Amino acid sequence: MFSNISLAKDTLNFPQPESLKADVNFWLRIYTEVTTSQGLIHDNERLNIIYERVSFAPDINHKARQKTIKQKKKYYESILLYLAANANKRLDSARHRKVKSLWPKATTANEFRKASKRLRFQLGQSDRFKQGLVRSGQWQPFIKKEFEKLGIPRELASLPHVESSFRSDARSHAGAAGLWQFTRSTGRRFMRIDHVVDERLDPFSATKAAGLLLKGNHEITGTWPLALTAYNHGAAGMRRAIKAMGGTNITKIVREYKGRTFGFASRNFYNAFVAANNIDENTSAYFGKVKRERPMIIQEVKLPSYYTAQGLMTAFGVKNNIFKSLNPALQATVWSNNKYVPKGYRLRLPLEKKKSQWKQLMASIARDERATEQKPDISYKVRRGDSLSKIAERFKVRTRQMVAINGLRSQHRIRIGQVLKLPAAAKEQINGAYQAAQDALFYTVRKGDRLSVIARKASVVETDIISLNKIKNKNHLYVGQKLRLRQDPDALSVATNEKVFTSKESVSGGVLQADPSDYLVAENGSVEIQSNETLGHFADWLSIKTSTLRALNKMTYKMRLVVGRRVKLDFSVVSAAAFEKKRLAYHKKMQDDFFNRFRVMKSYQRKLAKGGSVWLLAQKLNIPMWLLKQYNQTVDLNRIGAGTQLTLPAIERKTN
């Protein structure tokens, strides 16, 4: 099958070992022969063993489809178990002989038994892949040009076939989004991702981010097969695989590595990419003539202020649907006028006017359609008994607005303590209660006021006001002076009965999926020391004394931890899993705080100057030591001298 088709042309960067050919052929078949109304029941390790192609009725629902798949798996499981029990016997049944014929003649009973536990269903993709080929015309010219700038192979422009079928609006159950299927955690390292702007959905921004991630993966792993696998499995995971297998051989890692999260998707990611790239470069051999869409060519204008979306559309004379399609990163909060299009945003516009003409039109936008700062968030903390519909009704907003503004997958999934953002329309509902609470807490001195009169009117004790405001002379009040009347911290929540507060825009999410550092506990109970970690941290996460760890590692009180070295841990109180959870939470918060404010724009090489210090260099460039270490995994930053080549991330502050 497909034996005469030449695979990737660049065999230097993307090697095609004979041992993986059957795996690539499997994905060629999924992408070109089997539609999304069909699928294959197969062995999840030996992809050349395919038991059956299953076809579904066009109108079948998900539940019925899953039931059919389950029945098929059960059917082949019973056959394989029968073969295990009768491996050396003559088979009278045609169905048993048919399944046995798929396997080598010397297959043992034990192998048949293992195979009964390896049954898997793979949905076909051929119709979806063909649609992706059509859509790819919009973006591949830009992707290839961008990757050439970064010095990475053009063949990588085929990766969105595997990730999203070139759908810029694609979303996965795992929370990945866009052409390149970035999760929030990975994407925030390179892009702005929040409830106002989500650059994962903008193919231009996401492509630049994908290029940086792939380039970084290659610098860490050393080969493109592993850099691609790291795109799915993470750079830290591939570092562990390289260490466990003693090298970078892709076949050895795919066939033998048994990492705890290295499953079917990670094992097959490189092979699926090779198949997709082959189809991309030999389209007519599989689908005949395919007419790809024309390249997307746009004009960019950087916004000098905050604007309403409607104000921009009116000034530019661009229709709503076109404006939205050119700016997919703008979120529902912008289109519903709960947020402005932010200052600094690179607005995408049709290429029908020059940039100078667009700027002239922008200058004509009315004052009430622009602002100097973003509209603040209004938030509500979920309490016991709340539902999204009840909250929406309480604040006189629509449930679907609440779903959109908070990026919820379902209106039925909220939890106690969760902080939900409210649409701007809710502000009027809480302003009265908020002001009443403020009036109860504070008083602004007017002409002729005396402290005793103020206290009597507010029903408080005069000496309490003196104490709360540290007043030295009660007769020396001045007009406009703001006095605190009460110390009751619950005045606001009692008055509003809603636990509502306002805040500026914020971004949340983790970043550790893009982090190549190894935070896991090894089988011998040791961990690799990372930046910003102390023996005190380890002791705290383990709920033991630091002296216990010092004794275990034969460390004196003068000895310090060295990043990159290993330290033994004591899990007599806390399990390894619980320790890892606390450790990851610590690093997640530290990195979250940084990537809330900054993004990585590119990476570049620089030699350490004579007499230079890594620490001073990091301070000068505003690079945290933990981030510098992530970009220089093979360099011992504790022992480097002049002339040492470093990879440095170029950092840019994110716009608010």
Summarize, please.
By secondary structure, the protein is an alpha+beta fold. The chain contains 28 helices and 16 strands. The strands form seven sheets. The protein has a three-stranded antiparallel sheet, covered by helices on one side.
Features:
3-stranded antiparallel beta sheet; single chain; alpha+beta; Lysozyme; 4 domains
The CATH top-level class label of the largest domain = Mainly Alpha
Mean residue pLDDT:
87
Number of helices: 28
Radius of gyration: 31 Å
Q: What's the arrangement of strands in the largest beta sheet? A: 2-1-3
Helix- and strand-based class? alpha+beta
Present the secondary structure layout.
Blueprint (H helix, E strand, L loop, with lengths): L20 H12 L5 E6 L6 E6 L6 H24 L8 H8 L7 H7 L3 E5 L2 H25 L8 H5 L20 H4 L15 H19 L2 H10 L1 H11 L4 H7 L7 H18 L1 H5 L10 E5 L3 E2 L1 H8 L3 H7 L5 H4 L10 E5 L4 H9 L6 E2 L5 E5 L6 H7 L4 H8 L12 E4 L4 H15 E3 L6 H7 L4 H7 L13 E3 L6 H6 L3 E4 L22 E3 L6 H8 L3 H7 L13 E3 L7 H20 L2 E10 L6 H7 L4 H6 L14 E9 L3
Antiparallel strand pairs: 1-2, 1-3, 4-6, 5-7, 8-9, 8-12, 10-11, 13-14, 15-16
Helix pairs in contact: 1-5, 1-12, 2-3, 2-4, 5-8, 8-9, 9-10, 9-12, 24-25, 24-26
